[in-house]
Amino acid sequence: MTSLRTPVEALSAGHPTYSQTFPCEPSTAELGRDLVRDVLGVWHLDDLADHAALIITELIANASRHTPCPEIRLTVGRPSSTRLRVGVVDREPSRLPVLSQVTDDDESGRGLLLVDAVADRWGYDLRGADRRPWGKEVWAELRTEGGK
């Protein structure tokens, strides 16, 4: 496993992405938050760490609650110089994310509402062939300082 705790200089060319596979269980949320914070530190985007950590926590919770997958892949990327994207890839393309309508008495169901409130945009992409996808990535994006 690669450690991001050793300081390295971020590359200025291209649009980097970091990903790692973890068990699909609620306890992975702590590892996901650490991964996001480490990557954002390397990229000098520490100001986005709290929002990105909240988002990855909710995406991990949804995957562990709503899919029977044994593993998920966490991704942290820069699709452009002005955007940060965090995501969770699982092997359940038929279980798509849906914003829930919740009441004050509901004890759960607010995860994507939080993601929707914090992220600049979010969505999902199916993975694999159009007719037979093998999985999906649920993602959310934040603008970097240069993207305002």
Write a structural description:
With 148 residues, the chain is an alpha+beta fold. Helix content is 28%, strand content 30%. It is built from 3 helices and 5 strands. It has a 5-stranded antiparallel beta sheet, covered by helices on one side. A hairpin with a 4-residue loop joins strand 4 and strand 5. Helix 1 (28-42) packs antiparallel against helix 2 and helix 2 runs antiparallel to helix 3. It is globular and about 35 Å long. Mean pLDDT is 86; it is low at 1-13.
* Classification by helices and strands: alpha+beta
Kindly estimate the percentage of residues that lie in beta strands according to DSSP: 25-35%
Number of strands: 5
Mean pLDDT: 86
Strand order of the largest sheet: 1-2-3-5-4
Helix content: 25-40%
Note the run of SSEs as H and E.
EHHEEHEE
